[in-house]
Automatic annotation (TrEMBL):
Record's protein name: Pectinesterase 2
Main location: secreted
InterPro entries: Cyt_P450_sf (IPR036396), Pectin_lyas_fold (IPR012334), Pectin_lyase_fold/virulence (IPR011050), Pectinesterase_cat (IPR000070)
Domain of life: Eukaryota
Organism: Glycine soja
Length: 223
């Protein structure tokens, strides 16, 4: 709260509104009052969410037609995603937007119950969903389920020359880039300097925002 007060601006989120709130006498809330309000909202939100989920569950059990309609819609989404084998995609409408998906030091593997059926499906690292979509895999283990081409078009040649798909030193039977797509916008990164742009330290300014999460991570490349 102290840091927020140092930059006294109207913010469109809860803490910002509380910090800038003035009562009828023109007095601002104390730190204790702000803390009480935030804690109250958190507990209320938790109770409301639990209550809503409980009632949704009840209504779905009572209305079998609605439940079946939801199941049909869910299956439609699943089938449109080709059996769940298409990855989540990240789209950008402007090439200058500093956003994207970066997967580092991770594993892309099939669940145990899907291993016997790997030959029946194709799985890809990304799909050309928007003009400037950006996805980068770095130093990640890619298992056999990953198709040798690696990436999939969306509709014909749409966005194949404007998107930003990259790989850097991935491992495993699916990690080879020899059979990858030949799009002009896809490249296998060979420079550690270029690859480091997509690490926690550089891509999301990790040193300033990731320390407090408690989640283990690498600042840079795992070399």
């Amino acid at each position: 709260m102290c840091k927020r007060k140092e930059h006294f601006t109207m913010e469109r989120y809860l803490l910002g509104h509380l910090l800038n709130y003035n009562d009828e006498k023109g007095q601002m809330l104390s730190d204790d009052q702000i803390a009480d309000n935030v804690i109250g909202v958190l507990f209320e939100a938790q109770d409301i969410t639990a209550s809503v989920l409980t009632w949704i569950h009840k209504y779905l059990q009572d209305d079998h037609k609605l439940l079946e309609a939801i199941k049909v819609e869910k299956m439609g989404v699943y089938e449109a995603n080709e059996g769940g084998n298409m990855p989540l995609t990240w789209g950008r409408t402007d090439p200058n937007q500093n956003t994207g998906i970066c997967i580092q030091n991770s594993c892309v593997m099939a669940a145990e119950d899907l291993v016997p059926m790997l030959s029946s499906f194709k799985t890809f690292l990304g799909r050309a969903w928007r003009e400037y979509s950006r996805t980068v895999f770095l130093q990640t283990y890619l298992d056999l389920l990953v198709d040798p081409t690696g990436w999939l078009e969306w509709k014909g040649n749409f966005a194949l020359h404007t998107l930003h798909y990259r790989e850097y030193k991935n491992l495993g039977p699916g990690g080879s880039t020899i059979g990858r797509v030949k799009w002009g916008s896809y490249h296998a990164i060979t420079s550690a300097t270029e690859a480091s742009k997509f690490t926690v330290q550089n891509f999301i300014a990790g040193k300033s925002c990731s320390m407090a999460t408690g989640i283990p991570f690498l600042f840079g490349l795992d070399d």
